[in-house]
Amino acid sequence: xxxxxxxxxxxxxxxxxxxxxxAMGRATGQExxxxxxxxxxxxxxxxxxxxxxxxxxxQHVEEGLKYVYLxxxxxEVAKKSAGVDVL
Length: 87
Prior knowledge:
CATH class: Mainly Alpha
Number of helices: 4
CATH topology: Arc Repressor Mutant, subunit A
Structural class: alpha+beta
CATH architecture: Orthogonal Bundle
Number of strands: 3
Helix content: 40-55%
Number of domains: 1
Order of helices and strands: HEHHEEH
Largest sheet: 3 strands, antiparallel
Strand order of the largest sheet: 1-3-2
Mean pLDDT: 85
């Protein structure tokens, strides 16, 4: 299924972001950044969130001036896309 959520593998950092979103349910880019290992910069986190949106794993809603991100796939789908048991 080219282009489907299940066919696109997730990188290590994408999996970490999905872990944060599954744990929190919803979060801003800054909240996600604060919970990631390795102290990534905010710009990198936002870029990866846009990639995850394009892949169909997350969506955002605007709340005032902030984007709040939510997972839109089930944890099991994310596991399969990761290719390993990480979630």
